[in-house]
Specification:
The chain contains four helices and ten strands; from the N terminus they run ααβαβββββββαββ. It is α+β, with helices and mostly antiparallel strands. An eight-stranded antiparallel β-barrel has the order 1-2-3-4-5-6-7-8. The longest helix has 17 residues. The N terminus and C terminus are likely disordered.
Length: 196
């Protein structure tokens, strides 16, 4: 069973690697510098998924920023998320990411939905995650700032094409839809985030 799963998960990458313009996605092998490098603020830029519940979610997320903080154990990260879903800003401080050192994966459980991801080797100011949900593939790009270079975006889009994603399955956020962050002072007329 496990060998079959590994074959199924690796098949799209193997097929993509056959195409000369498709560079393989290389997962990061976690070491003692990996998790400290993830800590802090990230801006969600774009994502794609073949998993139907995530496609529905990606369609309504207009902007998202999140921060990773050390958890109570070395294999746990706390997450604070500020997201604009359609016209509503939502702040959540209850998420946790489990760090699995033995296979270098991150697992997020949200509303009983388990999401597993591999961190993909990239620039230190980019966070590329390859998601696995019920054997459906996903890829997301976040960055330390809302501005990503044209070259980095083109590279990410090439990965998406190589993994078989269509333009209809890729969703971008926009900085113009940013929510005020909880620690920022809001001016008159700014929408106050709701705690979720």
């Amino acid at each position: 069973m496990l060998a079959s799963l590994a074959l199924l998960v690796g098949l799209p990458l193997a097929l993509a690697a056959e195409h000369p313009s498709c560079a393989p996605l290389v997962p990061v092998t976690f070491d003692n510098t990996t998790i400290p490098g993830l800590l802090g603020k990230w801006v969600y830029i774009t994502g794609a998924s073949k998993y139907p519940p995530h496609i529905a979610e990606l369609k309504v997320v207009k902007y998202a920023v999140f921060s990773f903080f050390p958890g109570s154990r070395e294999d746990e990260l706390n997450v604070t998320e500020t997201t604009r879903v359609n016209e509503t800003c939502v702040v959540r401080n209850t998420s946790k990411i489990q760090v699995f050192w033995h296979n270098s994966t991150l697992v997020h459980v949200d509303d009983q939905v388990v999401s597993t991801a591999e961190l993909i080797q990239s620039d230190k100011d980019l966070l590329i995650l390859k998601h696995f949900n019920a054997n459906f593939l996903g890829l997301s790009l976040s960055a330390r700032t809302p501005n990503v270079s044209k070259e980095h975006l083109e590279e990410f889009n090439a990965h998406l094409r190589c993994l078989g994603f269509t333009e209809e399955e890729v969703f971008f956020t926009s900085e113009k839809d940013a929510c005020p962050l909880p620690w920022e002072k809001t001016g008159e007329g700014d929408e106050e985030p709701q705690l979720g």
